[in-house]
Amino acid sequence: MALEQVMLTPCKSEQELLEHFGCYGFEKQSDFYQTIGDNDWQIDINQGVIHFGNNITFSIQLLGSFSLSSETWLWSWNNDTSQLPSSVIEQALSLKQYGEQNGIDLFTVGQFAATQEDLYKIGVIAAGMLNTDGYYLADFGEGIVLVTVKKALIDVKNNTQSGLFKILPKFIGGLFNSSSSQGNDISYGDQQKQNQTDIFANFSEFISNFDVNHYRALKYYLIAKDYRIDTDDLNTHSQLTASKGEQKIVAEFDEHSRITSLNG
Fold first, then answer.
1. Closest CA to 98 of 65, 71, 75
2. How far is CA 31 from CA 62, 65, 105, 129, 157, in A?
3. CA-to-CA distance for 178 and 186, rounded, in angstroms?
4. Model pLDDT, residue 242
5. 217 contacts 128 by C-beta, under 8 angstroms
6. Whole-structure pTM value
7. Residues near 176 by Cβ (< 8 Å), separated by ≥ 6?
8. DSSP three-state, residue 198
9. Coil, strand, or helix at residue 182?
10. Contact, 51 vs 136, CB < 8 A?
11. d(CA 100, CA 94)
């Protein structure tokens, strides 16, 4: 199964994977959580599906599982005892192959000591790389199964959900603003403004939850969102200008590549 890649060069470390794919996966996860709400889950591993409530179903790929007792992660391709159907571990095998090609232990070591926080990292990387609709951590008591989810259309959103992992810190929230430009087509302009607002919100949440280089994380996120990056900005890392049709995003960074402003 081919990987959906938005990179310019192959990643060679966990950190590069997180910066290339994490924010894009994080965005997908936000939409997915709003879709499933507080519904209970039920997995049919043989059919390769997960059900939420009575009427929400996604196809799944099983990446691996986390043991709460031993605090270890086990990739599904290394789980010999569960006799998993080959059809549900295709993505895990794709990640393994990528890891072998690029020397990334995260994808090639079959079992290793881990924390529950590592599951979020693996989840957002996989969601971005494999272009899934998100991932789910299915807690079954003795451990947690990590699956990616895919559905042709996500069309139900429960806007009462609070979001992902924590509230955006105030000091970051003040950096993100969207201009109030007006156009002849108000509905189109409002939609474009909302798109940028969503991008700003997703990126600010992502960098508040993961330790990444802000410049690289934003660059690859915008590439994944089909923005064109101004090549003049690729050398200094102090500014990033991206455009998509009539939309324009300008970000500024300090000497440590930490974002100082983000405007559209």
1. 75
2. 20, 23, 30, 17, 8
3. 16
4. 94
5. no
6. 0.82
7. 200, 201, 203, 204, 262
8. helix
9. coil
10. no
11. 10
